[in-house]
Amino acid sequence: MVVRMKPRRKIHATAASARPLLLIAPLTVAVLLVASAGYSQPLDVSGARLVDLTHSFGLRTVYWPTSPSGFQHEVLTSGITEGGYFYAAGAFAAPEHGGTHLDAPIHFGEDGHTTEEIPLRQLIAAGVVIDIEEKTALDPDYRLTRTDVLEFEARHGKILPGTIVLLRTGWGRRWPDRKSYLGDDTPGDASDLHFPSYGGAAARLLVEERGVAAIGADVASIDYGQSTDFTVHRIAAARNVPGLENLARLDELPETGFLMIALPMKIAGGTGGPLRAVAVVPADSER
Ligand SMILES: [Zn+2]
User: Fold this and answer.
1) Residues 9 and 78 reside in one and the same domain
2) How far apart are CA 42 and CA 29, in angstroms?
3) Hey, which end of the chain has fewer CB within 10 Å, N or C?
4) How far is the CA of 244 from the centre of ligand 1 (A)?
């Protein structure tokens, strides 16, 4: 849609005159809610904590060092139109793999699901957080081990099929400082990256033995920074398990007992895509 623009000077007057209309809308909704009290209750999240696990996309968004570009966003138009109302629209472009994003199985598996083929049940499911912050504090190249997973299960019980597993390394707090987050900020060079993530044996246990729905982490990759063979990506892709990368605020989640919603832009034929991830944490949860 293209709308011809007038000069911007009337913005404030127009915004003020529009306010009474905006007030009417919530009142109407309230009346409708009272009138519909007989409807069956959908999932009630009114008492839950909603945790935003996505870093905002913008100029500082971290992309892989070899990525051809970062996040591009341009304002196409913004101002008062000839009709006297405000109108704004923009355009964006971005590589699929950068910022908080999803890796579709086809990213490392020729026959794997593309972004739009991933079943919703793999993207909306019960979540767990495996915390390895104590280990990553001593070793930035730390990889989650099979023993780490078994120790988690000794405390919480066996991880159920269809669970979304999140790895908390503590690296999310370093975002968006590229040098600190990736271990190196040399443009075009991904050979000296240092950050923790999953190890191969742990990934095999989760993906092949436990049948998890997806695996995610608060780092740039589900393989650690020094990986050259991308073992974890390949293990996950072979079983059509997507990856969730560059997640934010995992330190606000309990270890178990929350609902994970991880919905990427539905790119046809995509190998991944920008992700809006949210956790629904019950009010009585410990963290
Ligand atoms: Zn990716």
Assistant:
1) yes
2) 17
3) N
4) 8
Do residue 269 and residue 168 come from a single domain? yes
Give distance in angstroms: CA of 7 to centre of ligand 1: 43
CA atoms within a 13 Å half-sphere pointing along the CA-CB vector of 274: 17
245 vs 247: CA distance, rounded Å: 5
**What is the per-residue pLDDT across 212-236, written as a single tens digit (0 to 9) for each?**
999 999 999 999 999 999 999 999 9
Q: Which of 55, 107, 113, 233 is catalytic?
A: 107
The pTM of this model reads: 0.86
Concatenated DSSP letters of 126-183:
EEEEEE-HHHHTT-TT-EE-HHHHHHHHHHH-PPPTTPEEEEE-SGGGGTT-HHHHHS
CA distance 177 to 183: 10
Residue at 133 is within a domain: yes
Q: 98 alpha carbon to ligand 1 midpoint, in Å?
A: 7
Q: How many domains does the chain contain in total?
A: 2
107 catalytic, yes or no? yes
116 and 73: one domain? no
Q: What is the pLDDT of residue 15?
A: 40
Q: How many Å lie between the centroid of ligand 1 and the Cα of residue 274?
A: 9
How big is the chain, counted in residues?
287
Neighbours of ion ligand 1 (CB under 5 A): 97, 103, 272
